[in-house]
Amino acid sequence: MKTRIISTSLERVKEDAVVAGVFEGWKKLSGAAAEIDRAAGGIISAAGTDITGKLNQTCMLYPSQGLASKRVLVIGLGKEKDLTLDRVRAVAARAVKSAREAGLMSAALPLQLIPGAAFDPARRAAALCEGALLGLYTFRQYKTASDSGDDADFKQITICSGREHSALAAGAVKDAETVCTGVCLARDLVNHPGNTATPGYLAHTARTIAKQCGLSCSVLDESRMKKLGMGGLLAVAQGSHEPARFIVLEYAPPRAAHSAPVVLVGKAITFDSGGISIKPALNMEEMKTDMSGGAAVLGAMQACSRLKLPVRVVGLIPATENLPGGSALKPGDIVTSMAGKTIEIITTDAEGRLILADALHYAKRYKPQAVIDLATLTGACIIALGNDVSAVMGTSEELIGRLRSAAERTGEKIWPLPLFAEYDEQIKSDIADIKNVGGKGAGSITAGCFLKKFTGATPWAHLDIAGTAWAQQPKPYAPKGATGVGVRLLVELLRGWKPLKA
């Protein structure tokens, strides 16, 4: 699909539909709606009470004069006081999906689709582009026949700007396309079934990204992991016939090639049966999503390189399956992590923290400015925060604050949980240094406390994306399935990166 930006007046835009928005309770048209109404002989005004402006209400109009486009799609923006940048994304997604559902193949989204001057032109353009591209995402690689109404042949999105804003808007749209490509990569990886997206497949994807984007890539096999003492990762992998892989990607722009990096760590359990502590059969097919953290890191690394961000970034992805084979890890076993700490296994279904422990320790060799890990780590996080908000914990309030600011700008909501010392008591083991679960209470927090023991003095933040990585129902600009959460958040964080205060 093609995305373009033009500065032509709306009456001359020739697409299958041009989109205009109206706020709820409107009395006088403004923005794109007013311009289109004047050019087309009052077509929107004449619709009157059919257009209420209620959020996401759509009305297709067919002008007989004044416009090069054959249709006008009017969309409700809701109450003006409730307008946010994320609503702009959602409205853009709803508009283009409505156009696709109507059998159209192109749509024009003017910057003044949202009347007024609530956001600067660059941010408006980026939000419209993100909403449209992410809203049109489909995953149909395993379909042998088209579903009714599922038309993947939408050909063009046109962002319309005034001449005075065209340069700013064009740059913003180009960057937004790059970020959306990273999000869609992550969505594709998570949507693939576990028999496709194996640890080896993720390693191959990483090598492909590295070749295309000028990254350095190395993939550690199991023999190399043994030499390094990655006992947590290898213990989880030992029940599977698929060999584990530890993926290392590095983006080093010339001006920051020798500076301390920001390290991104992504959990990649490509299928999680729970191991010997096997999960219930109901919905187990969704456990292909347990590599969403690793997918987000791959998508973010691709975007960082293509955006030429001025900060060195390292991506670490421990990848394995968690299956109950004859040689599988057992409850009661004790494993030794790369850090030398011994871990008592209470349940083999708390495996993500074992592979992250080795990755977090490995990250220390880079002497990083900061470490951020993403993981579909705990069901307890869903109990605490539901499916629309990720949890954040860590050792640096400044880093957490930056993540929260980036989350606000991207609409990827996060909320902090504490790591008080009292929680450490729950993961003390009688026979090892630490145990891998701390009981029913505060499950997300005790998982964070476990990870903290492998981070050292480096500023660190942990994002538990268990609830947000997969949508059970469609979201405004994400269909049912993988959301690609984390990619836009990480890119936004790194886009304006400055060293953390000592």
Describe this structure in words.
This protein folds into 2 domains: 2-136, Leucine Aminopeptidase, subunit E, domain 1 (3-Layer(aba) Sandwich), CATH 3.40.220.10; 180-495, Aminopeptidase. The mean pLDDT is 96. A hairpin with a 5-residue loop joins β12 (334-336) and β13. α4 packs parallel to α5, α6 (199-213) runs parallel beside α9 and α9 runs parallel beside α14 (487-495). The protein has helices at 31-39, 43-47, 85-101, 121-135, 166-191, 199-213, 222-228, 231-237, 292-307, 352-363, 379-385, 397-410, 443-452, 487-495; strands at residues 2-6, 18-22, 58-61, 72-76, 106-110, 156-160, 216-220, 245-251, 262-266, 268-272, 313-322, 334-336, 342-344, 370-375, 390-394, 414-416, 434-435, 460-464, 470-471, 481-482. The relative contact order is 0.11. It has 502 residues and is an alpha/beta fold. The protein contains 14 helices and 20 strands.
Main attributes of the structure:
three-stranded parallel β-sheet; 502 residues; 20 strands; 14 helices; Aminopeptidase; alpha/beta; elongated; nine-stranded mixed β-sheet
Tell me the structural class.
alpha/beta
Any low-confidence stretches, pLDDT <50, length ≥5? Answer: none
Outline, from the CA principal axes?
elongated
By CATH, the superfamily of the largest domain comes out as Zn peptidases
Q: What is the end-to-end distance?
A: 46 Å
Q: Please give the count of helices.
A: 14
| Largest sheet: number of strands, sense, barrel closure | 9 strands, mixed
Provide the CATH topology of the largest domain: Aminopeptidase
Query: Residue share in helices?
Result: 25-40%
**What's the CATH class of the largest domain, please?**
Alpha Beta
**Could you tell me the number of beta strands?**
20
Proportion of residues in β-strands? 15-25%
Instruction: Tally the structural domains.
Output: 2
Compute the gyration radius: what is it? 24 Å
